[in-house]
């Protein structure tokens, strides 16, 4: 039993270190890309993410959801993509392909096509994952305060993982004194 607890404690610490390390590297990379290289929507191995702030894609994607997109070489009618148009990132469904690009429309926009044509070079990527209601939390964790919360939570979990070992040593010292 003692060995199992020890192994669990070591595994938990390793998982915590890897998870916190990956999150911190990702967040630092995103901050540097935004601040130093002036990328409005940085990608990480072709992936980008965003919190959804409008209901134009409801019920498929709701306000407050968090989306992950993946850059691809080509896109097809029916796919939901995020793209830059007029300085604003929009997530809509491709409804038609033309010589100039793609015609898009929000699922909740009652049949009215967007007034623009999304050119392929302005597409950030296809939406590959929607995390329901996670948009505000994800946006917070990408801030410096959010990163500090991640580090604090990891430190707390580290201490909790060490607690059984600490209690065991304390008991052993108490038994030796008697």
Automatic annotation (TrEMBL):
It is an enzyme of class 3 (hydrolase). It comes from the Bacteria. It comes from Candidatus Gallimonas gallistercoris. Its EC number is 3.4.21.89. This is Signal peptidase I. InterPro entries: LexA/Signal_pep-like_sf (IPR036286), Peptidase_S24_S26A/B/C (IPR015927), Peptidase_S26 (IPR019533), Peptidase_S26B (IPR001733). Keywords: Hydrolase, Membrane, Protease, Transmembrane, Transmembrane helix. One of its GO terms (biological process) is signal peptide processing. It is found in: Endomembrane system.
